[in-house]
Amino acid sequence: WVQEEAPDVLCLQETKCGGSAVPPEVRELPGLPHQFWASAEGRPGYSGVGLLARTEPLNVTYGIGDPEHDPDGRVVTAEFPSLFVVCAYVPNAGRGLVRLEPRMRFDAAFLAFLRRLDAQKPVLLCGDLNVAHAEIDLCHPRANRASPGFTPQEREGFTRLLDAGFIDSFRHLYPEARGAFTFWTYLGGARARNVGWRLDYAVLSRRLLGALCDSKIRSAVPGSDHCPITALLAV
């Protein structure tokens, strides 16, 4: 699927492996020779992201400058001539919301990081942001108001991101689209019944709107409890 899609940049989240453990079929993907991997320090099998690029970035950084969260290997940022591409795997608030407070601290630090980037050049944020922003973004909003990913605090965190001058590309283009989900639990045949959540986003600086061609959810692509999304920009 990746070869058919032929992306200029491929962002992967929750890889659960360090760079040395990346499978050879990923290492050898045609057209994506520049690969950058982050993983959790001392926690194999936890978190992790990867950013693969067709052309070599001008610069690549890891983390967001936050000592609490950077050891988890959640963010890789590649600078290209016309924009930053940020690959992110945002922390889950956890069963029983036991990690909601650390999640809120991450959201605040991450927004500050994105604003610093945006002050330099436009930003495209791609990743599993672990939040369904509005009721339209999950199948059963009423039953999930206290669930990780749909608490008022997490939804407000995403609203603050939008208020800071960033755009949810899919919802900008398709404001009324229902049943547009990117995650389905493995339990109960949820994917076949499309009982899902939209947790994966391509978020961009407002001044990139003129370059936005489309934002797609590739819900037919199997292989994970999430599906890929594709952002198409003319930059």
UniProtKB/TrEMBL annotation:
It is an enzyme of class 3 (hydrolase). InterPro entries: AP_endonuc_1 (IPR004808), AP_endonuclease_F1_BS (IPR020847), AP_endonuclease_F1_CS (IPR020848), Endo/exonu/phosph_ase_sf (IPR036691), Endo/exonuclease/phosphatase (IPR005135). The record marks 226 as: Interaction with DNA substrate. Its cofactor is Mn(2+); Mg(2+). Its EC number is 3.1.11.2, 3.1.21.-. It catalyses: Exonucleolytic cleavage in the 3'- to 5'-direction to yield nucleoside 5'-phosphates. It is found in: Nucleus; Cytoplasm; Mitochondrion. GO terms for biological process: base-excision repair. Transmembrane segments: none annotated. Residues 1-226 form the Endonuclease/exonuclease/phosphatase domain. Keywords: Cytoplasm, DNA damage, DNA repair, DNA-binding, Endonuclease, Hydrolase, Lyase, Magnesium, Manganese, Metal-binding, Mitochondrion, Nuclease, Nucleus. The active site is at residues 89, 128, 226. Probably binds two magnesium or manganese ions per subunit. One of its GO terms (cellular component) is mitochondrion. The keyword DNA-binding applies. The record marks 200 as: Important for catalytic activity. GO terms for molecular function: DNA binding; DNA-(apurinic or apyrimidinic site) endonuclease activity; double-stranded DNA 3'-5' DNA exonuclease activity; lyase activity; metal ion binding; phosphoric diester hydrolase activity. Belongs to the DNA repair enzymes AP/ExoA family. PANTHER family: AP ENDONUCLEASE (PTHR22748), DNA-(APURINIC OR APYRIMIDINIC SITE) ENDONUCLEASE (PTHR22748:SF6). NCBIfam families: exoDNase_III, xth. Initiates repair of AP sites in DNA by catalyzing hydrolytic incision of the phosphodiester backbone immediately adjacent to the damage, generating a single-strand break with 5'-deoxyribose phosphate and 3'-hydroxyl ends. This is DNA repair nuclease/redox regulator APEX1. It comes from Climacteris rufus. The lineage of its organism: Eukaryota, Metazoa, Chordata, Craniata, Vertebrata.
